[in-house]
Amino acid sequence: MRFPTQGNLRSITAMLIAVGFFAFMDTVLKLLSARYPPLQVVALRGWVALPLTLLWISWRGTWSTLLRVRWGLHLLRGVLAILMLALFTFGVKHLPLANAYTIFFIAPLLMTLLAGPVLGERSASAHRWALATGMVGVLVALRPGGDGLVSWAGLAVLGSAVCYAASAVFGRLCSRTDSSESLMLWLMLFLALVGSALAAPQWTPVLGSDAWLLLALALSGFGGQVAITDAFRHGQASAVAPFEYTALAWGIAVDWLIWSALPDRYTLLGGGIVVMSGLYVLRHERAGAASRKRSN
Asked: C-alpha distances in angstroms, 154 versus 151, 233, 243?
């Protein structure tokens, strides 16, 4: 899977594709959460992704890059990924996707805050304003006393967002020296093996009727992981992060199509604000790219 643009614009394109894949994956996670414990869902996510990951590595012929990695960073990403998926699975079991996404939208702000000390990136003022505006939209959607903000499910999604932000930033740091294939393979192995060990005490037999859900989980998770790895490899985290906000549109659509649930006017208003903040960054990046092209 290759993306046509360069730099931040290439990463923004990849992020939009990744968000679509992950919205589909989150729908599957919500369906599976009604049947299996959260840690088992984490393990299943790892196991179903492994065959596709191995085929992808074989197709690219990059087996030689898999052991030249920084093991400490891979271990850290694995721990964060297990926490992220387990907490998110628990959260979406009890919350509509749109509500979960609005809480999860703190992740881009956290990425921007971490990108400075961890990656040494200097974000443009336009990025900071877009993120600040987006967070105002999140507050509008959640508002004091809004559903899910102080529930255990809401707090689980909030914890998942923290883990995701840290994992994404450390993943970009890792990608400076390690291949995309190693980032995916060791993460999926960690989810499968460690997730299975943690889930073993409460393991529930997997139903044959859920095979189609597991296939959908494999395909959507693989596509999203390839896209998001590309997004954070080639662009500034602070430029890419606002486009996580487009997940809210996916969440609203899925809630309506599958569960016949629609968000209230505050969620819609807040969602509109955060989406507009992402579009503002895209316009800023296009203008900057055009200016640099004219100066060359």
From this structure: 5, 30, 22
Rg (CA), the chain: 19
Six-digit token string for 30: 């919500």
59: tokens are 């197709």
Q: Tens of pLDDT along 43-88? A: 999 999 999 999 999 999 999 999 989 999 999 999 999 999 999 9
| AA letter at 110 | L
Provide the whole-model pTM. Answer: 0.82
Neighbouring C-alpha atoms within 13 Å toward the C-beta of 202: 12
Contact (Cβ atoms closer than 8 angstroms) between residue 17 and residue 236: no
Averaged pLDDT, 191-220: 96
